[in-house]
User: Fold this.
Amino acid sequence: MILIDYKDTRPLYEQIADKLSQLILCGVLSEDEKMPSVRSLAVELSVNPNTIQKAYVKLEQDGIIYTIKGRGNFVSKKGDFIDEKKRLFEMKVKEMVDEGLLLGYTMEMLIMIIKKGGITHD
Amino acid sequence: MILIDYKDTRPLYEQIADKLSQLILCGVLSEDEKMPSVRSLAVELSVNPNTIQKAYVKLEQDGIIYTIKGRGNFVSKKGDFIDEKKRLFEMKVKEMVDEGLLLGYTMEMLIMIIKKGGITHD
Amino acid sequence: MILIDYKDTRPLYEQIADKLSQLILCGVLSEDEKMPSVRSLAVELSVNPNTIQKAYVKLEQDGIIYTIKGRGNFVSKKGDFIDEKKRLFEMKVKEMVDEGLLLGYTMEMLIMIIKKGGITHD
Amino acid sequence: MILIDYKDTRPLYEQIADKLSQLILCGVLSEDEKMPSVRSLAVELSVNPNTIQKAYVKLEQDGIIYTIKGRGNFVSKKGDFIDEKKRLFEMKVKEMVDEGLLLGYTMEMLIMIIKKGGITHD
DNA sequence: GTGGTCTAGACCACT
DNA sequence: GTGGTCTAGACCACG
Assistant:
C-alpha cells in the first residue's frame, strides 16, 4: 500500500502523510471511510507508532481527515479541503512556470511538456 | 541580494545555494563572473563561513560554479549544466501534472493556469 | 580495520571514504549491512566525528551507502554503483596505458606487468 | 603547448610539472634541450612566475631536468630518471590491477581493456 | 543513541 | 586574501 523511501531526506511522517493524501485524493480511500489505526499501520510499515501519529496530525491539520476519539480517524469530505489544495497547487504551478522561463523554455514549450507529462503513472 | 528565511526548515546552505543558483540562471551573475568570496558573503548574510562554503560545494557539484584555489569561485558556462537542470525540471513538471489531474483539473485547465502563471515576478 | 596515513596529503575524510569503499567492494562489509556509527568510528580512528560524517556523505553521494536518519548508514546494493565505478576504472586504465607507452613499455610488457601485479595483497 | 585545467583540484605547479614531464618523456623536448625560461612560460600560461619556478623545482627533484645558474633549465638524460619513473609506474599498475579484480574483472578482461586503451591520444 | 546542521576558530596551500 | 580542511562543541529531528 505504501512504500517508504529511506533515501528521501524528508521526515518519515511527511512522506507517509503525502502518500496517504494521494491515496485519498485518487479515491482509494473514500469519504468517511475509516483510516487504518495508528498501531496497525505502524506495524505494517515497520515504523514507530509516533511517526504514524504525527502523519495523522498533519493530515488533520490539512483538513484531509478528521478524528473521533476512541473510534479512529476518518476521511473528510473532499469539498472540505480540496479548495485549499488547489490554491497551494496553483501557487506551485506559478513558481514552476517562472523557473521554466528562466531555463529558457517558451510558453508553448511548457505546454508541450505538460501534454507529454500527463500520461505517466507509477 | 539574498534573504534567509528562518522559518524554512531546509538547511541554510541549501536555501543559499538555491538563491545563488537562481541569480545565476536569471543572469544577475554572468558566465565566468567572480562569485562573492566565502567570507564576504558570510558577513553579509550573518552566517558562518562554513555554511557558505557548503553552499558553494553544492553549486560546484551541480556544475553551476567552478573553483580556483586562492582566487575564488566563478560562474560556469550555462551550457555546462543547463541540460541537467532541464532534465530535472521536466521530471518535476510531470509529477505536478499528475498531482493536478488527481485534484480534478483537466489538461485544458492546467494549460490555462500555466498561461496565467507566467507573468508573476517577485 | 582502517589505518590513517598522516603523510598522505589528501583530506582525512577522503582517505577514510576510500578505505571504506574498498572494504565494501571486497565484501568485508556486505549489502544492507550496517556501517559503524559516525561516533564509534570517530573514537576508533581518533578523529573528529565531523570527519567521519564527511566521509559518509561522500560515500552516499557516490551511491555506495545509504542513510536512514536515526538508524544509521547501510551498504548499498552493488548493482547501484558498480557500473559507474567500472566506467571510471576503465578511464584510469586508458590513462595508465598511455603513460606506460610513453615510458617505453610495449603492449606485451604492460600485459606482463599486469600478470605479475594481480597477486599482491596488503 | 600546455593547457591548464582550473577544475583540477591539484596545485597548479603540479599540473604544469606533470605536463612538462609528459612532453619530455614523449620526446617533444629532447635531452639537454633548454627548457622555456620561467618568465616566458609564466607569461605564456598566464600564471605567476613563482608557480612555474615551483614546477621546475619539482622536476629537478625528480631528476627530470637540471639547472645551470644564470643559464637556465635543461632536460636530463633519460637514463637518469626513467628507472625511478618505471618503478613508480609498476607500483601504480599493481594497485590498479587489485582494484580491477575487486570490481569483478578477470585477468583476461583487464588485458582486453589494456589493448583497447592503448590507442587513445589527446 | 543516531545522523544532520550550524557555529566558532584554527591552520594550510595557493596567488 | 582566498578557498580547503580539520577540530571542538552545540542543538535539533528521528526512532
